[in-house]
Amino acid sequence: MDSRLTGPTRFFPRRLALGTAALSLIAASVFSQMTLADDANTTGLAVTPTEVTVGQLHSATGTMAISETGSIQAERLAIDQINASGGILGRQIKIVQEDGASDWPTFAEKARKLLVNDKVATVFGCWTSASRKAVLPVFEKENGLLYYPTFYEGLEQSKNVIYTGQEATQQILASLDWIAKTKGAKTFYLIGSDYIWPRTSMKIARKHIENVLHGTVVGEDYYPLGNTQFGSLINKVKLKKPDVVFAAVVGGSNVAFYKQLKAAGVDSTKQTLLTLSVTEDELLGIGGENMKGFYASMKYFQSLDNPNNKAFVEAFKAKYGKDSVMGDVTQAAYLGPWLWKAAVEKAGSFDVDKVVAASPGIELKTAPEGYVKIHENHHLWSKTRIGEVQADGQFKVVYESELIEPNPFPKGYQ
Amino acid sequence: MNALNKMLGGRQGVVGLLILATLILVVFPLTLDAFRLNMVGKYLTYAFVAVGLVLCWGYGGILSLGQGVFFGLGGYCMAMFLKLEASDPESTKIQSTPGIPDFMDWNQITELPWLWVPFHSFTFTVMAVIVLPVLLALIIGVALFRRRVGDVYFSIVTQAIALILTVLIIGQQGLTGGINGITDLKTLLGWDIRSDSARLLLYFINAGLLFGCILFGKFILNSKLGRLLMAMRDKEERVRFSGYDVAAFKVFVYCVAACFSAIGGAMFALQVGFMSPSFVGIVPSIEMVIFAAVGGRMSLLGAVYGSLLVNYGKTYFSESFPELWLYLMGGLFIAVVMYFPNGLAGLWESHGRKWLSGVTRKPATVIASPAPGITPTPALADKKAASPLEIQP
Hints:
The complex is a heterodimer.
Chain A: H1 2-11, H2 14-36, E1 51-58, H3 65-84, E2 92-99, H4 104-117, E3 123-125, H5 129-142, E4 146-148, E5 161-163, H6 168-183, E6 187-193, H7 196-212, E7 216-223, H8 231-240, E8 244-248, H9 252-263, E9 272-275, H10 280-286, H11 288-291, E10 295-298, H12 307-320, H13 328-347, H14 352-358, E11 363-367, E12 370-374, E13 380-381, E14 385-389, E15 395-400
Parallel strand pairs in A: 1-2, 1-3, 3-4, 4-5, 6-7, 6-8, 8-9, 9-10
Antiparallel strand pairs in A: 10-14, 11-12, 12-13, 14-15
Helix pairs in contact in A: 3-13, 4-5, 6-7, 9-10, 13-14
Chain B: H1 2-7, H2 10-31, H3 34-59, H4 67-86, H5 102-106, H6 122-145, H7 151-171, H8 173-176, E1 187-188, E2 191-192, H9 196-222, H10 224-234, H11 236-241, H12 246-272, H13 282-295, H14 300-320, H15 325-339, H16 343-360, H17 363-368, H18 378-382, H19 388-391
Antiparallel strand pairs in B: 1-2
Helix pairs in contact in B: 2-9, 3-9, 3-12, 3-13, 3-14, 4-6, 4-12, 6-12, 9-10, 9-12, 10-12, 13-14, 13-16, 14-15
């Protein structure tokens, strides 16, 4: 052995030898750490006997930051509360936060970083459909786990994602039924921003209006994201006089849309409007007085009157200031860590496969929105509510449905 | 041999090229894990655009603020092929129309659009990656340069084109996947491009193509054409009066830059596994100009370093300071423009070379030969002290 080595070692650079030694030391220490892990972690996740690492992947910068900040805050609140109550399987949760920067490729890059480099046990993150679509292949390839908080268009179901917001049929069908019944609505005008969520939502709405409610769609218009000129649309609405304007305008366009409606004299005394995309967060920008009397369909409103929600609102305000507001997605984001905790404890393990297997049937009776349960298809059973906008930027809940089964691939609506 | 040596920019050029090659082909693959190496691979796809910009902006004086268009076209061509391969009837059987890409199904399209049909063929795709962007560049170039639209007007038109293409892609979501882009690309001719071994191979293919582009760029710059480009940039009228067809040269160099960008885009789609309109618009296009500016818009190799540095900065800052990183990047850009207007290559010119000559104590050879990629013409040499703004047409 020695004699064979003496020759080459003379040419073997000392630094390289040192480097190799150091590397093997590091490898050894990493390995010993991994062998410490018990049954709760058989797949090499970043779990130590006292700590479990999770990822948080939202846009802290860019155009989506304003929407995603609420989700970041809610997830942190839930994790803090879980840590304060003893953590999960005796481990404290440590967060690695990454910024998706409102940029879909960045989301994909950071998702890979979290799963491959940080070996996080789960990720709470994403907001827009585009960002979810960008990270989805990464989560499926690396077998990660994502808790996705936003209400979205459906048509998706992944082993590696738990969808804590509503899919489109949950949000749309009950609210259309309600408005047809209480307002006797027969004619609808559909308006949306031009991307996959409004388009799919309106497709579902149109089928429901035409086939189930036997009403008519008198107009359907889409505007580019960020559009701020709604003058011609408002004129068309005034001309067609639909019973209901059904809107899914998102982001900054919202502010322009409702202010221009108000300026054109279209308010709730003259026009019924139901929106899918205005939460308390958006109302901050739009101003409650500009939308007073219009309706929004969501599963959660900050004004919900139940003990769970009172505790949630109080804790949120205590942590982030008394002026902070909580919208639908913020609440859905808050559910993520709790649902994960319940699934991990049921599985007795952080292994993604075991957590996923344990997830269907998980119930959360402490949810601010009331009661939720994870369906086989990884979406949540939830109620739909209609809120009426108040001048102070809050909603008055005027309708609450039964628990609705999630159905991301609705037959007859595709 | 002598000709080859000259083409590579003399001894200095060869050394510079070798250093970069060692860094990319040896140092990175040995020191970085699969994930980081894949990210470097992604950065290098932007370097294609930056190298193209050095040719058309740094030397040709054509500041294109719409290179994302070509990057995007190349990327979309490749992504369309990969998406078709990923959408075989078996894996899309959950859709109402199996066998077409998922986003088409979501947009109630029941038949593969004619535009997509040729992208079943890999040969066609590879050709389209090059030909389509070059064709577009040719049309834009002929339309504008023949009419002697130049300078800032040209930049504005390229921006408008980037905007138009973005709106078109987002608007035609049944055809293009809209704002989500084309996602979930899995295999290339049955070869799983998401595995670590595939990513490693793609990294080397990407690096090889990049060096091919750099060498081609050096070849152009060291030919008579390169001198003409610089002459045009500095005094266009004089070249025209000498009997040269100025527009033809401009169109050519613009097409070359478009071709480089498109190769980068195609490699991007392969390595990252998706393509979206966020690479096509004005903001990414300007970012690409920044890569070239940081690296030094007169240096082909500098452009590569610039792309690596800026993108590494982006990744590093955003991982370390998720809420502050944009300010840090902004600060970096301002600092570069204010203090190193000629970018990294300029910094090397003014400080690194002096330092190197002090170390090697061979001043004679060092001073005599030009910087990597920088071949001063007599005209330029006179102007050496001039600020970049003055050099810029």
